[in-house]
Structure formats: structure tokens, C-alpha cells
Amino acid sequence: MQDLTPPPAALAPPSPWLLRWQRHFAPGQTALDLACGSGRHVRWLRAQGLQVCAVDRDALALEGLRDCGAERIEADLEGAPWPLGDRHFDLVLVTNYLWRPLLPRIVEAVAPGGWLIYETFAEGHQRIGRPSRPDFLLRPGELLAAAAGLRIVAYEDGFVDGDGAAVNPRQIQRVAAVRERTPGDLQARYHLT
Prior knowledge:
Number of helices: 6
Strand order of the largest sheet: 3-2-1-4-5-7-6
Radius of gyration: 17 Å
Structural class: alpha/beta
CATH topology: Rossmann fold
CATH class: Alpha Beta
Shape: globular
CATH architecture: 3-Layer(aba) Sandwich
Mean pLDDT: 86
Distance between the termini: 56 Å
Order of helices and strands: HEHEHEEHEHEEH
Strand content: 25-35%
Number of strands: 7
């Protein structure tokens, strides 16, 4: 019999950066957790009533999410085509993951009125630990530039020590941004003519 107990990382608390914006999400909204790993955010978002699409290349990690009711997509985000087509989400969440060629697709996946919540390692982290390769560390202002076209609600670039969601201190960039609605978005949503 297979043990479906979530791995310890799945039981870790959600990122305080995500929790800071939680009042903007409501049951029934859609969320994408890209490179979701063991699913700590997937489980939290499902518990809040969101319809979650969990994407990761690790089939075993996704199997551990079978019991939480999330849509699970196994995909190699770095070596295969974008797995979500033209889908849009009320929340696009990315934590501790960077693949620069995907940044435009990630921003495009934010629906009108939707949020991008993104947090990952930045230059300077190599002095603290892994990841240490420049390929996996944001350059100064890079995340802010990637979110251009969205309304930036908050942006941070700096050192985080003991914020409750990570074992180790880290150098990070974080952005919270919204895709503004336009009158055309409202007409399409409510089928107005």
C-alpha cells in the first residue's frame, strides 16, 4: 500500500508574501502554482476554496497532491512547450523558481483583475547558500521589469531572515502585481454588447 502522507515540505507554512495578499482571493477563483514542488501552497490555496492548477516536473510530488482536489499537470517547464496554452488565472503564484524564458508566459497567464505573486532568490544569495549559479538568481530589478505591464502593488529586493516560511535566510526579490481590468474585459466577462 502506497503512503499518501504529504511530505514534510508540503506541511510547511505558506509564504508570508502570499499570506500578505490573501484578502484579495476568494473561494471559486482560479490559481496557478507554477513549479509547485511538494505543494505547500497548493494545499493552502485549496483550503481557501480556490480552484488550483499545480504544475511541476516531479511526478512523485504531484502524486502526493492527489488527495487535495487540485488539477495536477506534470510538465518540464524548461525543456518542453508551455503546458497551459492560453489559460488565465486569478492568481499566478511562483515561489523559489526561476526560468527566465518563462517570465513573459507567467505574466501573460494573469487574468484581468488577477494577481501575480512571485518570490524567488536574487543576486547576493550565492554568499549565503544554494542556489548560487547566476542562472537561478534574479539580477537587481529583474522581477520588477518582468512584471512591467501589470500594476505593481508591492516589490521587495533584499535579505529575509526567519520569516516563518523558510529554514534558511535568503536574498530574494518579491513582487505582487495586478492586471488591471479594462472596459472590454468586463463586457467579455458578462457578455455585454
